[in-house]
């Protein structure tokens, strides 16, 4: 008890020692969960878009001509083994992200290449479902924090050859959680390395940020400006029109 009182005093003074961390950490996680704002009604989203048009969620197939969308979580053929999304022909991202992806697609077309999207927007309730299945922050986002996918600012992409429609060999498939998926992995062939570097360069030139541990994941900066959403694909399709 004495330790707890001292600990509380130290926390109030913002002096957290290692011994206190064991007590304070669960409290911190709890408060983070309490304060995460989740937009789960179309009217709330409309209100935000009226105040700032950059918040709009747009359908990627309409915004980025020729982009290939194959949502891996709309089938059971993903690392969870569970179909997490309803069958969907398109997916959604915030307006500035869609604009940047359109620029990426244009730039790639000059090289005979294009984008394939494996995942983009993910409802917050799906992140919770994934967490219940896996419960490991190395592989799935902790729903208490909300992810870039929940905010409509993250995409999982690869490159395709426009003529054949085939994916370029990137060295690993999507959601391959070993060091071979890291950007600094040294065991790739020259062609695999070149393909990964090309994707990274074009995405970064258009404002995206790479993730060190997943070559396919890119996010838009200033994620905190965009609220976590828990709207269904159907609700977003209606809002995007
Ligand atoms: Zn991702």
Structure description:
The protein is of the alpha/beta class and 241 residues long. It has 2 domains: 1-35, no CATH class; 38-240, Muramoyl-pentapeptide Carboxypeptidase, domain 2 (2-Layer Sandwich). It contains 8 helices and 9 strands. It is globular, with a radius of gyration of 20 Å. Mean pLDDT is 87; it is low at 1-33. Residues 119, 149, 154, 156, 217 line the site of zinc ion (ZN). Zinc ion binds next to strand 6.
What small molecules does this complex bind? zinc ion
Mean pLDDT: 87
CATH topology of the largest domain: Muramoyl-pentapeptide Carboxypeptidase, domain 2
Total domain count: 2
How is the biggest beta sheet arranged? 5 strands, mixed
Low-confidence runs (pLDDT<50, min 5 residues)? 1-33
SS elements, strand count: 9
Structural Rg: 20 Å
Shape: globular
Number of helices, where a helix is a run of at least 4 consecutive DSSP H or I residues: 8
Alpha-beta classification = alpha/beta
| H/E topology pattern | HHEHEHEEHEHEHEEEH
Distance between the termini: 58 Å
User: How would you name the oligomeric state of the polypeptide chains in this document?
Assistant: single chain
Q: Quickly name the level 1 CATH class of the largest domain.
A: Alpha Beta
Q: How helix-rich are the residues, as a percent range?
A: 25-40%
